[in-house]
From TrEMBL:
Record Gene3D superfamilies: Alpha-ketoglutarate-dependent dioxygenase AlkB-like (2.60.120.590)
Protein species of origin: Ostreococcus lucimarinus (strain CCE9901)
Entry's transmembrane regions: none
GO molecular function per UniProt: demethylase activity; oxidoreductase activity
Domain of life: Eukaryota
Name this protein carries in UniProt: Fe2OG dioxygenase domain-containing protein
Family designation: Belongs to the alkB family.
Domain Fe2OG dioxygenase: residue ranges: 195-299
Length: 343
């Protein structure tokens, strides 16, 4: 992501020059407490750093402190030593939208408005949440991805082929199956949920998200469920058209993806530290960690969904997926998300 100077106030501040890398890092750490994201790549490449704030007002307040303060230590209240030189700083905008007005974030709803998507709040109790978190910490083999940790139960998920054919020694914890079985019968996707035989546990540190994707049609069945523990998050849904929805998943809630929400819409979690929720005046900070249990049923025959464009059983997503090994196509980038994250 590159940033350009902006003459109008934005949520982004660019601060430069910073004389040493360490100094930039210390500043970034201080800023991270109130800024939404730090473009860390800039620290290495240009010795300048871009901070993204939740609101334009927050960026303005920080800019005033930056311009008013004589020392760097005063900037974000961070322990930055040796700061006699005034910093060059100002608003910036993502280069691609420096002329366009800043797009308002979609406010996340607490109710689903995607066909086939059901959110059940308080699906597990606080005690069960704690027990499931302990189980995730003490059992299963850990895989470290770029920004999050995962564990697989029942079958391993292969991040290359995006299927799950390898049986693993770690069975799905009985408590996880027990809570899943209490899903109300009338929930769309109930039958598929009862056949789940693969579980992935994801641990997301604050600010870390998940790239847009549709879970592989050929590998998994009609119903995909995600149980949120310890922290809430906004999950967003988009289609290849313009449609875009955001839903807030509180801790202890269960999200059931079935129908269009499972087969046609991509789901993803934006990488950010604050979420914007409907009915909340101020942005909501994410918790330090969110744990999710994703339940899936491995598919045996080909997928027969009504969405051939997204379906690798019909050569829709398959051709894009196989190109992954030879080079990323635009279509594939769209399928898995611009960040190229794994899921
Ligand atoms: O963490 C979540 O809630 C979703 C995970 C997910 O989408 C996946 O594993 O495919
Ligand atoms: Fe997924």
């Amino acid at each position: 992501m590159s940033y350009a100077k902006s003459t109008r106030p934005t949520r982004f501040l660019r601060v430069c020059p910073l004389r040493a890398r360490d100094e930039a890092r210390a500043l970034a750490e201080g800023a991270a407490r109130e800024a939404v994201e730090v473009d860390a790549r800039d620290i290495d490449a240009k010795r300048a750093v871009t901070f993204e704030f939740a609101r334009v007002e927050d960026a303005t307040a920080a800019l005033e402190r930056l311009r008013g303060g004589r020392t760097r230590a005063s900037v974000f209240g961070a322990g930055v030593a040796d700061g006699e030189t005034a910093l060059a700083c100002g608003y910036s905008a993502r280069a691609s939208d420096s002329r366009a007005p800043e797009r308002e974030r979609t406010k996340a709803s607490r109710r689903s408005s995607v066909e086939g998507l059901t959110l059940i709040e308080n699906f597990v109790t606080v005690d069960e949440e704690r027990a499931l978190a302990t189980l995730a910490a003490t059992s299963g083999d850990e895989t470290r991805l770029a920004r999050r940790r995962v564990k697989h139960f029942g079958y391993a998920f292969d991040y290359g082929t995006r299927d799950a054919n390898l049986k693993v020694v770690d069975e799905i914890p009985e408590l996880a199956m027990e809570v899943l079985r209490r899903l109300p019968r009338e929930t769309p996707g109930y039958e598929g949920a009862m056949r789940c035989d693969q579980v992935t546990v994801n641990e997301y540190p604050r600010g870390v998200g998940l790239a847009p994707h549709v879970d592989t049609h050929s590998a998994f069945g009609d119903t995909i469920l995600s149980l949120s523990l310890l922290g809430g998050t906004v999950m967003e849904f988009r289609t290849s058209g313009e449609a875009h929805r955001a839903i807030y998943l509180p801790p202890r809630s269960l999200l059931v993806m079935h129908g269009e929400s499972r087969y046609r819409w991509q789901h993803y979690i934006p990488h950010r530290k604050f979420d914007t929720l409907e009915g909340e005046a101020a942005p909501t900070p994410r918790d330090d960690v969110r744990l999710s249990y994703t339940f899936r049923e491995r598919r045996s025959g080909p997928c027969e969904c009504a969405f051939p464009l997204q379906c690798d059983s019909r050569d829709g997503a398959q051709s894009k997926c196989s190109k992954r090994k030879t080079g990323k196509t635009q279509a594939f980038a769209e399928l898995v998300g611009e960040s190229g994250d794994s899921f």
